[in-house]
Design goal:
The chain has about 325 residues and is α/β, with parallel strands linked by helices. Helices cover about 25% and strands about 25% of the residues. The protein is built from 7 helices and 15 strands. Strands 4-1-5-6-7-8-11-12 form an 8-stranded mixed sheet. A 3-stranded parallel sheet has the order 13-14-15, with helices on both faces. Bound molecules: aspartic acid.
């Protein structure tokens, strides 16, 4: 018999916990300014061990997928995560999945998983703002909360979720908005989907809107290049022309497939940059406009910030290339 079960207790929900690194698995031997901090040092089994009582919430299956600072996140790790989560959910007895992640690119990975996973059983990302060795480290609480969410039937069918500092955010809305504060994440004007903590889990609003079509994960070597460019005073389009030229000459591999433009206001763009973008578009590059003033409204990318639009555009371009 499983050690977490007894004859008079119901079996615990089975939750897969995947570690990818980040500050939640980080250590700090000195003040961060002195360079003593390293992300992704501890393994996922150590993180689980550091969260007292977590074993009473679920039967946990802990696995390491990567041990990186999430600023270095790459498509190979995304592919591994998506594959492992899909395999896990193919088991009829699998209830949920938690991913521990660095806070810096958590929103990109959450949105990637939202795009490629078939909706259903809960996938919950979490992170920490303080290393595991810090005084009052926030990682153990966040991991505990994430497991609470992943093990809850109420979390199913709400898309990919993020449990951070007592709040439950949706993958489309969540963004990191502070480099240090414990409540570094926000869902902007829309607010979180709910709250989680010692009192349990409570959803206060539904998952926003329709989930767009589920897209396939591109195979290795088939991730299209989508770059971010921004509009600002003096934006003259030189970067776009250089990208286009390098792409045409074959110096840039893979060549330029798309551009996400961080525009001003409603996604407006400096006239000189616009001229270069028009040339790129007529050369077959997909150009999508976001705004530095907040989430653009309307259209296929409604409510997404620029880095998430980039994720979606890469997946769409890969799907188109496959035909
Ligand atoms: N640089 C770290 C990371 O994203 C920051 C963190 O996890 O809070 O991996």
């Amino acid at each position: 018999m499983n050690p977490t079960q007894s004859a008079d207790r119901l079996p615990l929900p089975k939750v897969l916990v995947l570690g990818t690194g980040g500050t939640i698995a980080g250590v700090s031997t000195a003040h961060p300014a002195q360079g003593g901090y390293r992300a992704g040092v501890l393994d996922i089994a150590q993180l689980v061990e550091a969260a007292p009582g977590i074993e009473l919430l679920a039967e946990l299956h802990a696995e390491q997928v990567a041990s990186i600072d999430s600023k270095d996140m790459r498509p190979e790790v995304w592919s591994k995560l998506a594959t492992r989560i899909a395999q896990w959910f193919a088991r009829p007895d699998a209830v949920g999945c938690v991913v521990t992640h660095g806070s810096d690119t958590l929103e990109e990975t959450a949105y990637f998983l939202q795009c490629v996973l078939v909706p259903g059983k809960p996938v919950v990302l979490t992170a920490a703002m303080r290393p595991a060795t810090a005084l009052s480290a926030d990682g153990p609480r966040n991991l505990y909360d994430a497991v609470q969410v992943a093990a809850s039937p109420d979390a199913a069918g709400r898309g990919v979720l993020c449990a951070l500092h007592g709040r439950v955010h949706g993958a489309c809305d969540v963004t990191k908005a502070h480099p240090m504060a414990l409540d570094a994440f926000t869902s902007g004007e829309r607010g979180p989907l709910g709250f989680v903590g010692p009192q349990g889990l409570q959803f206060t609003r539904n998952h926003p809107g329709e989930k767009p079509q589920t897209l396939s994960v591109p195979s290795a070597g088939n991730w299209p290049r989508v770059e971010l460019v921004s509009s600002h005073a003096g934006a003259d389009g030189g970067v776009v022309r250089a990208l286009l030229q390098a792409s045409r000459s074959g110096a840039l591999q893979p060549g330029l497939g798309g551009l996400v433009v961080i525009g001003t206001g409603h996604g407006t763009v400096h006239e000189d940059l616009q001229a270069a973008l028009d040339v790129a578009e007529s050369a077959g590059v997909r150009v999508v406009y976001a705004s530095r003033a907040g989430m653009p409204q309307g259209g296929a990318y409604d409510g997404l910030n620029a880095v998430k639009i980039r994720v979606r555009l890469m997946l769409e371009l890969a799907a188109q290339a496959k035909g």
